[in-house]
Write a structure and sequence with these properties.
Structural class: alpha/beta
CATH topology of one domain: Lambda Exonuclease, Chain A
CATH class of one domain: Alpha Beta
Distance between the termini: 71 Å
CATH architecture of one domain: Alpha-Beta Complex
Length: 302
């Protein structure tokens, strides 16, 4: 079975929707999915940003629609769906695309960022056999050297770098934006892949970080080094080590093979599309009229 960071996170959000979207990918049959998500503005801007920073795409004063579609194409579909989020009806860059373009140009003009890109490899395909059942796939944005250490770098175009909220130990706590989005999980998988290429799977040899430019205007740029989370990543997937069992991949495998039902979150678009009109049996329950509504028997009598 095939798994990736995006598919895994989809199962955490709504297993029923994830199964409808990705079952064919997981099994390697690539059947037409039961459910697809439309390209969002954030996805389109992020793709444009990535192609400029890492693929050398140079946007003109006016977009070349054929070139833009080719640049924004991915394994999930052609780039035509991104065009409507990046251009106006007159065939010009819209305001969101213009901000994204300036952000990419700002990052490319930064000496440290330019050096990291020039001295590294971009868009490295990840294909790691984690176990006899699971293969982990993805794509490393940038593998470069930082302070003499091989480092996996993810390039992001966040809307904000303000702290956000996560649930930890049953409580809401404030956390940095990159923790809120769980980027450590994606990068840990890439670290594991790079280290496994050495033939030893010795952990702790590869660094990880996020290089970013915000979508504010003007854009803020920066780099954030992340801690080594490979062991933590393995614990989430497998329950500790590759053969221990009890991790999330066991649960997903049961859902994909039909051994267990796929729970519905009940509030996403996919779940809403599956709601049915159900006519109840019997008489509806009568409401309890009490003082909280100001409708006591005495007042009603008046």
């Amino acid at each position: 079975m095939i798994m990736s960071n995006s598919i895994f996170r989809a199962f955490l959000q709504c297993p029923a929707r994830a199964l409808a979207m990705h079952r064919g990918r997981i099994l390697g049959t690539y059947d037409t999915p039961e459910w697809t998500e439309p390209t969002s503005r954030a996805m389109a801007c992020g793709t444009l940003f990535d192609r400029m920073v890492l693929s050398g795409y140079v946007p003109g004063d006016k977009p070349d629609m054929a070139a833009l579609s080719a640049a924004c194409a991915s394994t999930y579909g052609n780039g035509d769906s991104a065009i409507e989020h990046l251009t106006t009806k007159k065939g010009e860059w819209n305001s969101y695309a213009q901000v994204t373009i300036r952000a990419a140009q700002r990052l490319l003009a930064d000496p440290a960022a330019a050096a990291m890109i020039a001295n590294g490899d971009t868009h490295i395909a990840v294909n790691t056999e984690l176990s006899p059942l699971w293969t982990w796939r993805g794509e490393i944005d940038l593998l470069t050297q930082i302070n003499g250490r091989r480092t996996v770098v993810d390039v992001k175009h966040p809307g904000s770098t303000d702290d956000g909220w996560i649930v930890c130990g049953g409580k809401n706590i404030k956390a940095p934006w990159y923790d809120v989005w769980g980027y450590w999980f994606q990068l840990a998988g890439y670290q594991y892949y790079v280290e496994s290429q050495d033939g030893t799977q010795a952990l702790g040899l590869t660094g990880a970080g996020i290089m970013y430019a915000t979508n504010s205007d003007p854009a803020a740029v920066g780099y954030i080094a992340l801690a080594d989370n490979v062991e933590r990543w393995l614990t989430v997937l497998f329950g500790g080590v590759l053969t221990s069992g009890g991790g999330m991949l066991d649960k997903i495998a049961a859902i994909v093979t039909g051994a267990a039902p796929a729970p519905s979150c009940g509030h996403c678009d996919y779940c809403a599309s599956r709601w049915l009109v159900q006519i109840p049996d019997g008489e509806p329950a009568q409401p309890v009229v009490g003082d909280e509504y100001g409708l006591t028997e005495e007042r009603v009598a008046i």
